[in-house]
């Protein structure tokens, strides 16, 4: 791993498998919690989230605490950004005060220039518009690995608002590194324009056909915050055609596993009834978020 985690470009299969192994090694004996290891008591980690987050921000905070690092929860609403200070000057102030690593979520692709300019501080990309969310992709591979032996044999179906999803961008980057058998994209064409004719996989408009052969299904929410115009399909028609529920899952194999990066809008892309199925790994993804983020922080601090 390099000095920062901005995307997965340049990562190898071995890098990813090592991160998964390290993340799992932090699980305690009964595998239901993570060990506390005082590995980095001198490190200061600050969050900078310009967009809302529950999983990413809290799991990085818990991961940093588990590793003995200090976590500084920077609150933009109470900061001098409200008095006109720029993003760049704010990040520089963080660096000058001794922050070692900044976890940044922003709707624009600002992180690359910041990481170049303030190179004595490390950066983790915690969500860059619809472009990248690399730690989520690593969590998803870690969670797949718990149920499936070999990535290269997997038939993967991704359903929902693909165009606005940073999760799917990073997932596709990751899965091309570790290998896969096939990828099927499914969703309303207004939300899948970049995937109607995409070299990585095939677009399938019918949900049932898209689900029937899948080993791994990833559902995505409609990213209303990034839609520039109103959808040409009503909410009830969307649910009718694209919701994953007990009925639509009847065509799938018993070994299929179902993912969603969260937050889930239950009742839209997933029916609540699927959440408790053995095949549904959404809760595992959330739990694995802490371990993978412990692994990412450990690797990055080892590069510092
Ligand atoms: N998956 C994900 O990024 O969730 P949050 O927006 O809650 O961090």
Order of helices and strands: HEHEHEHEHEHEEHEHEH
Q: Describe the strand arrangement of the main beta sheet, using strand numbers.
A: 7-6-5-8-9
Helix content: 25-40%
State the separation between the terminal residues, measured CA to CA.
Answer: 11 Å
Mean pLDDT: 96
Radius of gyration: 19 Å
- Helix tally? 9
Q: Provide the structure class.
A: alpha/beta
Bound molecules: phosphoric acid mono(formamide)ester
Largest pleated sheet: 5 strands, parallel
Number of E-type strands: 9
Provide structural commentary.
The chain is an alpha/beta fold and 304 residues long. 35% of the residues lie in helices and 14% in strands. It contains nine helices and nine strands. The strands form two sheets. It has a five-stranded parallel β-sheet with strand order 7-6-5-8-9. α6 links the parallel β5 and β6. α1 crosses α5 and α2 crosses α9. The chain starts with 12 loop residues before the first helix and ends with a helix. 42% of the residues are buried. The model has no long low-confidence stretch (mean pLDDT 96). It binds phosphoric acid mono(formamide)ester. Phosphoric acid mono(formamide)ester binds next to α2. The site of phosphoric acid mono(formamide)ester has 10 residues, from α2.
TL;DR of this structure?
The chain is an alpha/beta fold. The chain contains 9 helices and 9 strands. The strands form 2 sheets. It has a 5-stranded parallel sheet with strand order 7-6-5-8-9. A 4-stranded parallel sheet has the order 2-1-3-4.
List the helices and strands and how they pair.
Layout: H1 13-25, E1 44-49, H2 55-66, E2 70-74, H3 87-96, E3 101-106, H4 111-117, E4 122-128, H5 134-147, E5 155-159, H6 166-178, E6 182-186, E7 202-203, H7 207-212, E8 216-219, H8 235-242, E9 257-259, H9 282-303
The structure holds phosphoric acid mono(formamide)ester (CP).
Phosphoric acid mono(formamide)ester binds next to helix 2.
């Amino acid at each position: 791993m390099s000095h920062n985690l901005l995307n997965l470009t340049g990562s190898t299969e071995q890098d990813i498998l090592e991160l998964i192994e390290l993340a799992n090694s932090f699980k305690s004996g009964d595998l239901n919690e993570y060990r506390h290891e005082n590995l980095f008591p001198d490190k200061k980690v600050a969050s900078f989230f310009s967009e809302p987050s529950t999983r990413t921000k809290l799991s990085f905070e818990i991961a940093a605490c588990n590793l003995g690092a200090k976590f500084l929860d920077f609150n933009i609403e109470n900061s001098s950004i409200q008095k006109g200070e720029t993003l760049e000057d704010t990040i520089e102030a963080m660096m000058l005060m001794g922050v070692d690593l900044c976890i940044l979520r922003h709707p624009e692709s600002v992180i690359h220039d910041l990481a170049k300019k303030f190179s004595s501080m490390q950066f983790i990309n915690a969500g860059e518009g619809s472009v990248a969310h690399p730690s989520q992709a690593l969590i998803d591979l870690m969670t797949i690995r718990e149920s499936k032996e070999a990535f290269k044999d997997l038939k993967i179906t991704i359903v929902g608002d693909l165009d606005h999803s940073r999760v799917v961008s990073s997932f596709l980057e990751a899965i091309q590194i570790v290998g896969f058998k096939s990828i099927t994209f499914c969703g309303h064409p207004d939300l899948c324009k970049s995937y109607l004719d995409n070299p990585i996989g095939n677009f399938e408009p019918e949900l049932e056909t898209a689900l029937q052969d899948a080993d791994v299904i990833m559902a995505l929410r409609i990213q209303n915050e990034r839609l520039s115009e109103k959808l040409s399909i009503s909410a009830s028609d969307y649910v009718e055609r694209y919701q994953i529920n007990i009925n639509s899952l009847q065509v799938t194999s018993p070994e299929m596993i179902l993912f969603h990066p969260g937050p889930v809008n239950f009742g839209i892309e997933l029916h609540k009834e699927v959440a408790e199925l053995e095949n549904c790994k959404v809760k595992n993804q959330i739990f694995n978020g802490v371990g993978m983020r412990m692994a990412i922080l450990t690797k990055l601090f080892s590069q510092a």
